[in-house]
Amino acid sequence: ATKAASLTLDASKPGATIDRHIFGQFAEHLGHGIYEGVWVGPTSTIPNTRGIRNDVVAALKAIKVPVVRWPGGCFADEYHWRNGIGPADKRRAGLNPNWGGVVEPNTFGTHEFMDFVEQIGAEAYISANVGTGTPQESAEWLEYLTAENTVLAQERAANGHPAPYKVAFWGIGNESWGCGGAMSADYYLSQLKLYSRFSRNYLNGQKMQQIAVGPDGGKTEYTETIMKAWRDKVWSWNIDGLSLHSYTVNGWPPAKKATGFGEDDYASFIKETVGMDDLIKTHSAIMDKYDPAKKISLVVDEWGSWLAPTPGSKPGFLMQQNSQRDAILTALNFNIFARHADRVRMTNIAQMVNVLQAMILTDKERMLLTPTYHVFKMYVPFHDAKLVPVSIDAGTYAFGDIRLPRVDAIAAIDKNGKLWLALTNVDPNAAVGIAVNLPDVHASTALGETLTAPRIDAVNTFEAPDVVTPKAVKLSVSNNKLAFTLAPQSVTVLGFQP
Ligand code: AHR
């Protein structure tokens, strides 16, 4: 059955800028996220540049990844940067106790990460070790990265990089309320002050943002404690962002199937994921109290679906398939982040390759792009675009007790003045005939792409990598109106032109 919906957008009222960093990535030393997914080593038969996979680099360049958070995650609070510099054959191998207890060879370290972000054209977001490290270790890492004419700068040069690196974001710990040391908010705050004060960015003229650990989902203690201290501080420490972690899991430990699930699982995942809006509102309200000028960003630096591991995969490697459900979930979260663009200025999906809700899966020399990847690509026009108001008569998608708006949408104007519209039909059972009103928009054509799938649990596999791929759409606009049909369980992005 085809349902009806309508939408009116007001292109004359551009609002907040949708920071491109909202479309960021997270890559941890976890399972095959870095090793095999990004790093194969310079002697590999898999085509690579200085050890970094060429196919993965090309795919990530195409989605214009703005920023990558590294090296963790829980891994970050046990990472000692000195183990990952210097000649590869002299590096000290350690263990990765959080993630399968496997050997961490340290062949991918600081220089390799900075090479990787440079190859894909992204900025670096590095998480310092607060759990098992010291303020001195953190300060020296940042000096090693960014200084000129110091002993540490000379060591960096001797290791092959005379020029200082640009570090855009510095994370002070990870989940310090949990795997980062189970610290009370007050204890973490005292650590934060030391790390913020003494970790100095020496690269002249280069603003670096410091990100504090913030809330675990809906818990507000970290948000209250850190924001209050920030407002009342006299001098000597500062932050630019507060991190929020929230996964779509549907119960703990994660046990919901990645494929072969029914509509009950689908509907409850979508309901849980749109709860991101309430979470952001809860923490934004506290932040507004202490920071009404919105100087501090809320940084959702871990989000995405966390499902039962792929059968037969290694425990602790967090491998999961990625279906059309993940595509819908991605678009809904992007829309929520964009609507909170005045406070949410960076997010990092967990995780980039082969781990959790990944963009890319690899199997030795093979690589595939997931439905989530395609949504990231379709939303590229929204990077740094200005949000425009949309009013929508969305209809209702109902399953059991769950009621959700059937259609969700955002619109924005990019730097060249071009108008873009993104529409998601959440309903897996019904197409939607949508009437779009575009007052004051001079357009005759809408060009874009739509992503749908034969089933809501459809996935791309190495044998069939193109089951879920976007299809081109070309539509006519007349008298400031556009009418077309959104397929069930679909994401569509359209750009308007005269
Ligand atoms: O992304 C996997 C893990 O989830 C991260 O290491 C940790 O920060 C979070 O609990």
UniProtKB/TrEMBL annotation:
- Per its UniProt entry, which superkingdom is the organism in? Bacteria
Q: Which SMART domains match?
A: Alpha-L-AF_C (SM00813)
> What reaction(s) does this enzyme catalyze?
Hydrolysis of terminal non-reducing alpha-L-arabinofuranoside residues in alpha-L-arabinosides
Entries under InterPro entries matching the protein: Alpha-L-AF_C (IPR010720), ASD1_cat (IPR055235), GH (IPR017853), Glyco_hydro_b (IPR013780)
EC top class, in one word? hydrolase
Provide the Alpha-L-arabinofuranosidase C-terminal domain boundaries: 301-490
- Which keywords label this protein? Carbohydrate metabolism, Glycosidase, Hydrolase, Signal
Enzyme Commission number(s) of this protein: 3.2.1.55
**Matches recorded under Gene3D superfamilies:** Glycosidases, Golgi alpha-mannosidase II
Xref: Pfam families: Alpha-L-AF_C, ASD1_dom
Quaternary structure?
A: Homohexamer; trimer of dimers.
User: What's the family?
Assistant: Belongs to the glycosyl hydrolase 51 family.
Name of protein: non-reducing end alpha-L-arabinofuranosidase
Read off the lineage from the record: Bacteria, Pseudomonadati, Pseudomonadota, Betaproteobacteria, Burkholderiales
